[in-house]
Amino acid sequence: MSELPYAADTSYPDPDTLGAIPAVMTATYCEHCGRSQQKVSHGQCQRERGGEAPTYCTSCRRELDVTVDGDRWSAVCKKHGQTTGTLER
Ligand SMILES: [Zn+2]
Ligand SMILES: [Zn+2]
């Protein structure tokens, strides 16, 4: 049995979890560019976005319906509902 890979060997895909989405990973997509948070660095996105409202839902990548009222923004995802924030100026 010594030829079996250890569970700690991350290069070996676990057939039980392969393709499954871990429940703890809720913020999966970049709110600015919509790309995966895991695959690319989004430091540039954070700088570009500044204090503006997000463009994409971080959970499902849907484009958000953004409304700005004064210095407040609200972004609505059809699936995940509304998030609100304050514009930084
Ligand atoms: Zn990004
Ligand atoms: Zn969503």
Characterise the protein shown here.
The protein has one domain. It has a 3-stranded antiparallel beta sheet with strand order 1-2-3, with no helix packed on it. Strand 2 and strand 3 form a beta hairpin. The chain has 89 residues and is mainly beta. Helix content is 8%, strand content 19%. It binds zinc ion (2 copies). One zinc ion (ZN) binds next to loops.
**Beta-strand percent range:** 15-25%
How many domains make up the coordinates? Answer: 1
Low-pLDDT stretches are: none
Distance between the termini: 62 Å
Task: Give me the number of helical elements.
Answer: 1
Mean model confidence by pLDDT: 82
Question: How can the largest sheet be summarized?
Answer: 3 strands, antiparallel
Shape: flat
Which oligomeric form is depicted?
single chain
Extended strand count: 3
Instruction: Give Rg in angstroms.
Output: 18 Å
Please list the strands of the largest sheet in the order they lie side by side. 1-2-3
What structural keywords apply?
mainly beta, binds zinc ion, three-stranded antiparallel beta sheet, 89 residues
Give a brief rundown of this model.
The chain is mostly beta strands and 89 residues long.
Any chance you could write out the topology, listing elements then pairs?
Elements: H1 43-49, E1 65-69, E2 72-77, E3 81-86
Antiparallel strand pairs: 1-2, 2-3
One zinc ion is lined by residues 30, 32-33, 35, 42, 45.
